[in-house]
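User: Hey, my collaborator sent me this sequence without any context and asked if I could get a structure. I don't really work with proteins. Can you help?
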Amino acid sequence: MRRMFWLRVGDRNLHLLKLFGSFLVFGAILKVAEAAYYIFLTVEKVRFAKINPALIEQLFGWSLTAPNGFSTQDIIGVLLGPIASFMFWMGIAAFALIIYQSGRVIVPIEEFEQKISEHHKHLIRRAVEHARSRKR
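Assistant: No problem. I've predicted the 3D structure and written it out in structure-token form, which is a compact way to encode the shape of the chain:
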């Protein structure tokens, strides 16, 4: 038998794993958007650094070939961090979706049936019998 953890707020039950997964998905999506922004920002900085090599030290604070211009190694070195951050947060977002979706795989039929009162069982039984009689 699998256990699911529920949080009761008012009249509603919240599945704790789905709640945690939804917060993780939302945070990861925000961080993915931020990492994508930093990629575009870095590309714009590289573009300005190629146009005006005097801005290299101000834009990046370092360069292998600062006085002469911005080399291919510099461009790769500058873009590695934002791209790695983007890929990391995409992985976290995928993991968060797996956590969020795990609530749909587990169906605790035994535990749910225990929570139903006799009155509700009688109402459900009558509704099922009524639906069967209408099909005939």
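In plain terms: The chain has five helices and two strands. You can pass these tokens on to your collaborator as they are.
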